Amino acid sequence: MKVGIDLGTNTAGQPVRLDLEELLSTRLLVQGNSGSGKSHLLRRLLEQSAGHVQQAIIDPEGDFVSLAERYGHVVIDAERTPGEIERLAGRVRRHRASVVFNLEGLDADAQMLSAAAFLNGLFDAEREHWFPMLVVVDEAQLFAPAGGGENSDEARRAALSAMTNLMCRGRKRGLAGIIATQRLAKLAKNVAAEASNFLMGRTFLDIDMARAADLLGMEKRQAESFRDLNTGSFVALGPALARRPVPVKVGEVETASRNGRPALMPPPEMGADLQGLIFEDGADPLPPVRSVPAPRPMAEIMDSITAAPAPEEELADPETLRAIEAEREALIGDIIGHFVAEAAAASASPMRSVQSLYQDFLVHCRVRRVGSRVPDLADFTRRLAIARAGVEPGLPEGEHSGEIWQQVRGQAAELPEEMQGVFLMLARAAMEDAASPTDEELARAYGSRSPSRGRWLLTYMEERGYLTCETDFRGRRVVRFPAFGWKTAPGEPRPSEMARG
């Protein structure tokens, strides 16, 4: 289900929307000098998407704590041991709680180490807890610096490694990184390069303007336009935003930062007494002792995470959902069918490995906007094997044929994914009383051009009791399926030279 986030309006007053499902696969980079409106933009995005997806915010200044009261985010103070932080992050993923990880009050090294522990806890969650999550990192240049700076090597390596995992490998674990930085030149290039969506705000330094223009595909002479952007104005580009650079004025937000935007405040009129207040000891009362609240106990935080409501999903018409799913399946089937046809056309070339085809498959899915629900490698292997065998379309109609075929597919599912298409091809031939496929046909369905591979497949399945093979007096092969009482018509294991011609 596609969900569009309303970011604001373009110069013509038309709404600019962000495709949330596409964002989960492609990540986002926000850049702008201090005061350009980055935090306002992030707040708008978080507020608009709060009811659709789980969120985690790495908050170095405590700006986003105000989201907790309005949207139910759990605030986690970072003054804890790394082990505690990692356990909290794992529980956040397990219970799908939206959280604000508040780093306010820690020094730079402690912020980097705490953020690294939290991100590692999210990243190392068990596979069954890989739910989609937006991970927003404000002031990302603090956690993924381009240079050494004044931080310790230990803190810098830990934070940079965690940020690289988030942006480079997080997608497969459901983590969609959204990073915001004041300066692109201070952000590690291998972290920034993984983003496919960009929102570029006001910036003045030539090096930052040049990098922003390069990321947006703009000419160098257009780079100076970033100096003219107003507060809250950005240039958007990316598969989740727009195919061409589009200016956007960010809309209003419902919550406010605790720090707020600086405003003018005239000094008080104290007259001659002002000198006495400054130079005379004891002229003013001692300042009150500042009480620092202790961090909330870990047990209380965990209870809050457990009790936090999961993001509410927008209910859609069942018929619409079926249509969307059918469209997605059709796109996936079309892409896989293209691979099969391409392999058949290149009959003289070696068959490509499934892993190599899967990488191309992911690229095709992104280009054709299949969405975030893309088959994993095992599912792709199964679909490819079935497509190579050509067994699913046009099954015979009958009162019980569909039910029996489901039982056949259940048996096939017990085999390795790459063999399931071969088994289904043999079963369909037996069900239709057609001739047993040749060794070459079996090998092609498996993804090989070697006939001996086809004979090995039959031996493998026969040894495990899925079928039996017999040879008649003319040397033709008959394949039987004891579980269903089916058998193929006799077929030549190797096509004759005349048939080849």
From TrEMBL:
<dbReference type="InterPro" id="IPR027417">
    <property type="entry name" value="P-loop_NTPase"/>
</dbReference>
<dbReference type="InterPro" id="IPR008571">
    <property type="entry name" value="HerA-like"/>
</dbReference>
<dbReference type="Pfam" id="PF01935">
    <property type="entry name" value="DUF87"/>
</dbReference>
<dbReference type="InterPro" id="IPR002789">
    <property type="entry name" value="HerA_central"/>
</dbReference>
<feature type="domain" description="Helicase HerA central">
    <location>
        <begin position="10"/>
        <end position="76"/>
    </location>
</feature>
<dbReference type="GO" id="GO:0005524">
    <property type="term" value="F:ATP binding"/>
</dbReference>
<keyword id="KW-0067">ATP-binding</keyword>
<dbReference type="InterPro" id="IPR014588">
    <property type="entry name" value="ATPase_Atu1862_pred"/>
</dbReference>
<protein>
    <submittedName>
        <fullName>ATP-binding protein</fullName>
    </submittedName>
</protein>
<keyword id="KW-0547">Nucleotide-binding</keyword>
